[in-house]
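ESCALATION

Customer reports they have been waiting on this structure for their group meeting. Please prioritize. Original submission:
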Amino acid sequence: MDSITIEELEKLNPAKITIVDIRPRDHYVRGTFPGAINIPSVNFSDEKCDLPKENPVYLLCHTGERSREYTRLLHEEGLYRTRIPHRKHERDTAG
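Update from on-call: job pushed to the front of the queue and completed.
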């Protein structure tokens, strides 16, 4: 399974990727990666079909454990090209 760093993710064209923050909504609103949408892990199975299929999907969470698990599930279903930032998410910038 592929993974990338936050620094590598920052260099990608945001128009050509989909970034999904799978943390709970209250964590997401405190700060997330620029351009990320929120699909909390508890809703992910139901809402994953709404993800665009033309772009790679990058999942992120706080530690990388849940994003790794959900990336594996997407790979097993053959639905998306997916990768995970494997470093702790450190984008909490909201004041």
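Sent to customer with the following note: The longest helix spans residues 65-77.
Escalation resolved.
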